[in-house]
Amino acid sequence: MRYYIIAGEASGDLHGSNLMRGLYAEDAQASIRFWGGDAMSEVWAENENSGDGGLVRHYRGTAVMGFTDVLRKLGSINRNLKACRADILAWKPDVVILIDYPGFNLKMAEFAHSKGIKVFYYIAPKVWASRESRIRKIRKSVDKLFIIFPFEIPYFEAKGLDFVYKGNPLVDAVDRSLAGSPSRGGFLAANDLPDADYIALLAGSRKGEIDSMMPKYMEFAKMLHGMDRYRDMHFIVAGAPGRDSDDYARWTAGAEDYVHVVFGRTHEVLSHARVAVINSGTASLEAVLTGTPQVVAYAMSPVTYAIAKHIIKTRYISLGNLVVDKLAFKELIQNDFTVESLSGEVLELLENEQYRDRMLGDYAEIRARLGGGGASRAVASAMLALLR
Fold first, then answer.
1. Considering the chain, what percentage of its residues have pLDDT values greater than 70?
2. b/e burial code for range 306-326 (CB count within 10 A of at least 16 → b)
3. Which of 82, 128, 227, 301 is 20 to 30 Å apart from 175, CA to CA?
4. How far apart are CA 240 and CA 214, in angstroms?
5. Main-chain phi, psi angles of 106, to 5 degrees
6. CA distance 379 to 146
7. Per-residue pLDDT at 131
8. Interval 145-163 mean pLDDT
9. DSSP 337
10. Helix or strand or coil: residue 120?
11. What is the value of pTM for the model shown?
12. Which residues are CB-neighbours of 66 under 8 A, at least 6 positions away?
């Protein structure tokens, strides 16, 4: 089979790479062409590395953040849509598989469907959180929806949408990553890091997110480092896939003695950290699966926030909290995200053992609700069965 996969950001690249592993395992004749990133490219090179498949465009040139970013990049988005349509027609896939990224991918679903190409949507758009009107587009243009969260099951059942649920692929991704990872000492030595306790800082994968989050992260790091009892605490920024050191250097300048940037080791950075500060997204669920106490902090442009407040319907923004429908870990959003509030929550996680243990207990419940392993291959098998 010929599979055309479209992922538009780092989390989609991660899920796409695991799905590709499943497709190659289930279909010996699989040929895959994709929009994605380094993780998907690595899997393709391991399994195919010939023919006319492979990476079409990297997500670092396509990702957008918020409503204002969409307006600024409208010309680029339209050019990408045109290029993607042309490439699909030229390659003639058996199926187009769309991974999240709904602003772009729902347009591609409509296009592929109009050309008689089967469309699978893997990792459903978060219509349960906002823009429920997108359900009409899914119903009209998507042949099969594949969901990854247990709380989505009753929602899509109530909407009358046919779907497949096989568990959450992030469980496999994190467990596979950590299974081959070094000890704490080995990790620190391999990355030329001091043998000291550290706090992990994850600022997101988009350039706009990094520029929004890093100034407060650095203020927070400076404040904590200035306390006598945390003078020896270090901070490791988990460099996002598709980004480079220049994206962080302007913010970490002057703090290199205690702030470090490590690329390509996000799960290891999380698993050995005392605490993680995360800008939500997939990373907050990764922290749950690595067992790392966390606080979610997120800020966006005032215009984007004002719009988001009116369209987002969920009580929480973090996937882990949504899974158990309670505040398993704190969310500091927009005006609540200050250096003082962040420092207070991190100190609570560092110094209050009961508080940490309660959070880790909630983590166990979240993991249990996400199901066991094998989700990516099970989805690949279901996709192949539908195509045959």
1. 92
2. ebbeeeeeeebbbbbbbbbee
3. 128
4. 13
5. -70, -30
6. 8
7. 86
8. 95
9. -
10. strand
11. 0.86
12. 208, 300, 301, 304, 308
Decide if pLDDT at 63 tops 80.
no
Q: Residue 384's pLDDT is what?
A: 98
Residues β-bridged to residue 260: 236
- In this predicted structure, which of 31-40, 122-131, 192-201, 375-384 has the lowest mean pLDDT? 122-131
**Beta partners for 262?**
238
Helical H segments across 92-202, by residue range = 102-114, 134-141, 152-158, 169-179, 184-190
CB atoms within 10 A of CB 385: 10
Per residue in 287-337, pLDDT (tens digit) is: 999 999 999 998 766 566 555 554 566 688 899 999 999 999 999 998 899
DSSP letter at 373 equals: S
The candidate with the shortest Cα–Cα distance to 205, out of 359, 7, 34, is: 7
Token code pair at residue 308? 């988001």
Q: How far apart are the first and last CA of the chain?
A: 9
C-alpha 86/C-alpha 80 separation (Å) is: 10
According to DSSP, residue 196 is labeled S
**What is d(CA 67, CA 59) in angstroms, rounded to the nearest whole number?**
18
Q: According to the model, what pLDDT value does residue 74 have?
A: 62
144 within 8 A of 47, measured Cβ to Cβ? no
Q: What is the pLDDT of residue 71?
A: 45
320 vs 206, residue with greater confidence: 320
Tokens of 352: 């209050």
Exposure of 269 in the CB half-sphere (CA atoms within 13 A): 27
Q: Structure tokens of 361?
A: 């207990």
Contacts of residue 160, defined as CB under 8 A and 6 or more positions apart, other chains included, come to none
Task: Please say if the pLDDT value at position 147 is more than 70.
Answer: yes
Tell me how far CA of residue 293 lies from CA of 40, 255, 260, in angstroms.
Answer: 29, 24, 20
Q: How far is CA 260 from the centre of its chain?
A: 22
Distance, CA of 364 to chain centre: 20
- The residue written with tokens 């459903």 in the block is 124
For the beta carbon of residue 118, count every other beta carbon within 10 angstroms: 17
Do 122 and 98 touch, CB atoms closer than 8 A?
Answer: yes
Mean pLDDT, residues 129-137: 90
Distance of CA 268 to the CA centre of its chain: 16
Residue 24's pLDDT is: 97
